[in-house]
Structures are given as C-alpha cells and as structure tokens.
Amino acid sequence: MLYRSTRGRTTGLTFQDAVLMGLAEDGGLLIPETIPALTPLEADYPELARSVLEPFAPGLPWPRLLARAYAPERWPRGVAPLTRLGEDFLLEIYHGPTYSFKDVALQLLGELFEHLLSQSGQELNILAATSGDTGGAAIYGVRGRERIRIFVMFPKGRISRVQELQMTSVLDDNVFNLAVETDFDGCQQLLKDLSGDLEFKRAYRLGAVNSVNWARVLAQTVYYFAAWHEVRRQTGAERVSFCVPTGNFGDVLAGWYAARMGLPVARLVVATNDNDILARFFQNGIYQRGPAVNTLAPAMDIQVASNFERYLFYRLGEGLTPAMEQFARTGRLEVRGGDPLFESGSASRQDILATIRNVHERHGKLIDPHTAAGVAVASRLKRDEPLVCLATADPIKFPEAVREALGREVSFERDNYEGRPTRCQTMPAEADALRRFIALKVDRTAPR
Ligand SMILES: *Cc1c(COP(=O)(O)O)cnc(C)c1O
Q: In the prediction, which pLDDT does 165 show?
C-alpha cells in the first residue's frame, strides 16, 4: 500500500515514510492510494486491530506492537468498553494512561515510532500543538523512549489544570513542554510554519503526532469496528450510527474511513460546540472560518480542522488544491452537493451543562463536556438504528465544568496530578523563538 498527498505532489510513500513525515512535504495530508475493503474479525482488541491495520501497512510486527500498545496494564477497563445510555450507547475510549481517547492512537504511535527508528537508526523530534489532550497523550506515548524527543506547544492559560499538570509533571529528559502566548489556532499555525520550513524540518528531523499523522486516523478506525460488533451482538442490528464530538475532524474521519472499508455505518453525526464551522458545513456546504471562541469543551475550540482536508479530497479530487488555496486567501470555500452519510449539530454552553446534569441524574453517570456536546446533539436526532456516542475524555480532566453543571463538588476516581514537580517553558508565538529553542535542545543533547 502506497501513500500520496492530498495536494498531489508528494507520492509513492510507504506507510513507514508516511508515519515519519506527518504532514506531507507539499503542504497536504497523506492518504492511502486506495481504501481496501475489509471483513474484520470478531476478536479481542489487538487481534481486531491487526486485521484492520495490516492491509494498510503490511510487513510490520503488528502482533507485538499491538500487544504492547493495548496491554491490559495500560487499559485496565479495556480499550473501548461499550456501556448503555438509555436507548443509546456510550463508547468509552478514554480509559488509557492520560484519560482521553487520544491514547488509543498515541500509545500505538509510540510503539510504531520506536520500532521504525530502531530499524533505521535515525532520530525523530516530534513537534506537537495541543488544545489540551493531544499533548498529554503524545507525551505518554513517547516519554523515555530512545531516539525520540517531543516538543509540545499548548495555548498558555487555556487548557484545564489537570491537562496542564498531566503534561508538565512528566520530567523525562526527552520531553519539552512549551506554554505559548496564543490560542490553539496560533499553536497550530506555529506547527505549520515549522513543518512548512522544509530545510529546518529535514535538518532537525521533525515529525508530527497531531491528528494529521495518518497512523492516528488509521488506529482510530479500529474502535468503530469493535463497537459495531458489540452493538450487533447486543441488539441484532446490522447498521449502526455514531455521534462524534469533533474538533480537528480526526476522530469522525476515522469513522468515515471505517465506512469506506465496508463497515455498515448508517450515519456519522458531527457534533461541535459553539465553534460550529464543521456543523455548518454539513448543513449548507459552506466552509467558512470564524473567530474561535472559548468553550467548556476546549479540545473542540477549533476553527480550521486540520484533518478536514482529507475528507475534502474525496469530495473534490484534484480540485482540492485550488480550493485550499482559495480558503487560505479568503477563509471560505463551498462544496456543491451533500453527503448523506453525515449529519451535524452544535451544542451551546447551556446544552453541555444541561446534558452533564441530565445524564448524571438519569443514568448515574458522569460525562465530560466534550462527550456531553455529542450526547446533546445526539438527543435531538430521530433514530431508526442503534446510536453510539463516542465518550472522548474522562470527566476528571474537566472538573470545573462538571462542578458547574451539577452545582456541587464531585470526587473522581482517578489521579489529578496535584502536588507533583513540573517543568515548562513560556514562549511568545513566534516561529523564530521556537526554532531557536528546538535547535538548542537538539544540538545540546545530540548523540555524538
Ligand atoms: C481531541 C478531542 C476531541 C476532538 O477530536 P478530533 O479528532 O480533533 O475531532 C474531542 N474530545 C476530546 C476530549 C478530545 O481530546
């Protein structure tokens, strides 16, 4: 299986190249040249994952990598347990090391990087921008691993305390936390600036773990298959819908790929918060940038969804490049004709709070504000088929929102990282400052 860029000028890459490159060198996103049709096994999670991943990346020691990434010590409650929420289902993909669904992909990506680099003898310096959850999950994926350093930028003062402590309390020598004086889109812009500086990118062997990395999207397709098998087992239904709290469009895109591989998906529901650019797109075909607003679900406070380009490629084909150039100039693009697989909706602050409260009252279950945005949107849908809401974070990551919703203190089951030593560097939102920081750390710690 070979990979190409959505922009068409980077082609013929292997899976290994695609994973290490992250963003394509022509500025596009890497995608498989074809999407294989699959009949995935009804098996335990690592074995199911192997059956899904192998056609996209043959020749890797998948059983070993997957056995480690999804070991029960890392996932004491399973990788993707399905629970009931009234007539719907909740797919709890947040029981990994950093309490967010991003662990599903990043635990595997850490294993993959380590394997690929040990084969080639090369090093990798990962640069990441996080709205809160990617950073922790990426750091826990690669902390302490040989041949890898990680630099994580987060918007200073705009992520939750648990999220920040989870990252900054990791003191491994290969981990660098950067609090950048900007918002998340500003952090993503810095990431794009440095990834677009090919000379710097090559000299410092920069790689990406953001959801632009193909391996992340691919790893996330697996739990759609797992959920589908389980729902069919419980209900007998052949077709299942999924409601996905959406920010960078990585998670729901994985569902779309699963459907393209042949999984009988009835509908994919794109749920946003007040940053509703994607919800609007799936209603009127117009993708138009607006100002990002801060909400209770910060991992979804995104205007320009980096993974959306992959989906647009399948809608526009070679028309993608001019459309993206137009979007870069004007902040707007329009795609004619709809896509019957998708539905969308957005959840306001009040919707999120009321949903956390209602779910707790009715079902005795705490959900986080991102999951609540999805459940709020799902509650408005008419359904003829079973609906699975993806639960993307443990509520302990967002205790302020949960407290506000319930109007009282709550205690959580998991560690909140308070009281540990931390390490973090504050930085202005300037590409040159970032270049200098990376150069200093890499040159100083480079093996001789
Ligand atoms: C990252 C994240 C999302 C959004 O996922 P995308 O793949 O960016 O659409 C939703 N909820 C939580 C808790 C997240 O961390």
A: 95
